[in-house]
Amino acid sequence: MAGIRVKLIARLSNTEVFILTQHLHITRRQLLANTAASALALSPAFANAEAAWPTKPLRLVVPFAPGGSSEIVARALAGEMAKTIGQNVFVDNKPGGAGNIAMQEVANATDDHTLILGHIGTLAVNQYIFPKLPYDPNKDFTPITLISKVPSLYVVHPDLPVKNLKEFVAYAKANPGKLSYGSAGNGSAGHLAFEYLKMATDTFMLHVPYRGTGAMLTDLMAGRLDAAAAGAPALLQFIKAGKLRCIATGSSARLPLLPDVPTVAEQGFKGFEMTQWYGLMAPSKMPKAHIDKLEKEAIAAARGKVVHDKLSQDTALAIGNTRAEFEAFIKLEQARWKPVIARAQIKPEGI
To answer: What is the pTM assigned to this prediction?
Structure first.
């Protein structure tokens, strides 16, 4: 269609938007569509609508039962974000299916006000453990920020004749198959942590799965197990009481509460890091403007003193990185855990 000369005036909220006279090589339908879009983008009403989001309380789904590190992290972030984002942020626990049930629900959410606490399991591990997931961790969600890391600790019964990881590895190699370690169950963080250590150190130990950390720790302290790995909050009191000996931390740096315990990496296994981590995720269908606002608010909250202090009480590390950094971190974690799970042939309970 030949070029046409036009002069349009659009009125929106008493604001005149002038489209300057020009030669446009477009169809009438394209012209009208582009004019309407331009006018809407310049409209104060449109700008105010974006600024007003969220228009109702934000729901932060935690895919685990109440209690534990996941809820501590979620509530710490939610409380701070609610102070600045303009709406309350409430935590909603939805346990079941190793987090898969909640992830599926949030992936399908369309209300633009539902978020989820992503986790090492739901974002980096489950896809290699379960034969099929009801969600795609890379396509169905948009990463917002990595909120926190909870370091894993490697502990042994005090009667085991080792004082550090190097001695433990040497003892395990000298006594192949004689050592046992416990976990809270197949595919649990403790199970993954020890299988990762076995792969890094080229050692073999028998895995004894329990139904929960409490029962496992009871047997470990009674001497029916030799070793275990778990999140720092569950172990610190027993380490301080001398009922367990910590031989290494899975963190990238030494922990302030255990300054004399070296990391796994320090003891000869460069690049080794084992932490349970939690990040804020949104459904991929959520508009970019909302994602941008969430990123800004969540980073400010995670980096703030209040969240830092709350998390440090449970030996959790506050992070608050950018969306791009969190996305890259997830990819690295997926690459880290794929060979560990394949080597150990880890399967969920009942499969």
So the answer is: 0.76
